[in-house]
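quick q for whoever's on today - can somebody do inverse folding on this one?? i tried earlier but teh output was garbage lol. tokens:
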């Protein structure tokens, strides 16, 4: 069971900001910006690169939720949505998660 599956199962505590039947969103434990939220599917999909055509609706829903949560967090000045995929991409938890970052000016390009 991955760390995020344990959070979804309420076996590990998290600061949950949003939940629906398909997804859970909670604050990152090591925030990289004033607002840093992870949006994860409840289905244990490892990473975006492991998604199939059947997951397309779920992937779209994750992005829609990121924008909805950005509105709830009042990130009207802008924000960034990040998905790290695989080791070169910086993925450390093998359960798909969308990072929502905001609340400060973000640099580009990312490191
Ligand atoms: P990634 O590096 O894209 O796989 O992102 C994993 C993220 O999970 C990192 O930003 C971590 O800070 C975050 N993280 C790790 N453990 C926890 C936890 N228990 N609760 C919330 N976020 C966590």
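ok took a stab at it. sequence:
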């Amino acid at each position: 069971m991955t760390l995020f599956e344990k959070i979804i199962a309420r076996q590990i505590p998290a600061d949950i900001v949003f939940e629906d039947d398909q997804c859970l969103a909670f604050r990152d434990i090591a925030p990289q910006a004033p607002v840093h939220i992870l949006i994860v599917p409840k289905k244990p999909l490892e990473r975006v690169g492991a998604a199939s055509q059947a997951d397309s609706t779920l992937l779209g829903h994750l992005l829609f939720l990121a924008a909805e949560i950005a509105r709830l967090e009042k990130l009207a000045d802008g924000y960034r949505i990040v998905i790290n995929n695989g080791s070169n991409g910086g993925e450390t938890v093998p359960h798909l998660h969308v990072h929502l970052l905001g609340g400060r000016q973000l640099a580009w390009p990312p490191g």
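fwiw The helical segments are 3-8, 56-72, 86-89. also The chain has one domain: 3-102. so keep that in mind when u check it
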